[in-house]
Amino acid sequence: MTDRKKFAPPAIQEFAPKLAEVTDTVLFGDIWERPGLSPRDRSLVTVTALAALYRTDQLGFHLGKALENGVTKDELVEAITHLAFYAGWPNAMSAMTQLQAIADESDEPA
Q1: Which of 34, 66, 67, 74 keeps 20 to 30 A from 106, CA to CA?
Q2: In terms of Cα–Cα distance, which of 45, 46, 39, 48 is closest to 81?
Q3: Which part of the chain is the Carboxymuconolactone decarboxylase-like domain (predicted)?
Q4: Is residue 20 within 8 Å of residue 13, measured between CB atoms?
Q5: Measuring CA to CA, which residue among 5, 39, 41, 42 is closest to residue 21?
Q6: Which residues contact 45 (CB under 8 A, 6 or more apart)?
């Protein structure tokens, strides 16, 4: 078996190994690798879906992943602002708070 990157949190890998396995192999190993959308576009779709549905537990990870995949902080701010009028103000404010914390953390000197 090849060494694949593990995306499921370590606690889930231990507690629910099958869920961790399908997260790593199906979701990130297959769905995220399909050629129809770039990783950048998939990140933007994922962030907006998680923010709209108030899925804050996964949102922080995906905001960071979006930045890694080339979505800019300004683009995320704009997407979340736009989303406020369709998915609700509280959802957008929570997403923006998480994004600000991640952006502030990444701006800190190493």
Answers
A1: 34
A2: 48
A3: 17-99
A4: yes
A5: 5
A6: 37
